[in-house]
Design brief:
The chain is α+β, with helices and mostly antiparallel strands. It has one domain: 2-Layer Sandwich (Alpha-D-Glucose-1,6-Bisphosphate, Chain A, domain 4). Helices cover about 30% and strands about 25% of the residues. The longest helix has 23 residues. The protein starts with a helix and ends with a helix.
Amino acid sequence: MRKAIRSLTMLAVPAALIAGCASQRQADTPPVPPQNPRTDFATARSFEAPPELVWEAWTSGETLQRWWGPRGFTCPVADMDVRVGGTSLVAMQAPPEFGGTVYYNTWTYSTIVHPHRLDFVVRFSDEHGAPLHPSELGLPPGIPAEVPHVLIFEPTDDGGTRLTIIEYGYESQDAINLSRQGLEQCLDKLAETLAP
């Protein structure tokens, strides 16, 4: 029952954001795409840091390297090119007990409204940024070649930030669950990085 309530809550988050963003976004900012519960998921987390610092954690390579990746993973590469049409190269390295493999991703940006909204498409790649299909890396089925992301940074009344992340286009519930688990661990590490 608790899982069902949480799932319904997460589905309601994007709908509320679509309505809220419509009233405050700039004219050139596209609306937040609707979410399909069979292929997409959303998660939200509150941080004590203001939006500017949470934004920096996603756009500064030096800061990203301090927290990106699930528990036990490190981020050896974060070459950031945060501009519309720009592509960042980000890596996460598995711990030795998981083989130590380095996984590279590119993040290609389509919407940047500093420090409120960041849209990018994630693709797996080699160390030079050339695209690779997840199956070429031995990853489980259901992870698509491209995963659009929408990040929304909202100021809270206490001076903090509510960050909502929506990921689109997964091909199985197992892939959604795997991605959600990894993202939640990343956000735990982000919270520790931003802690006063």
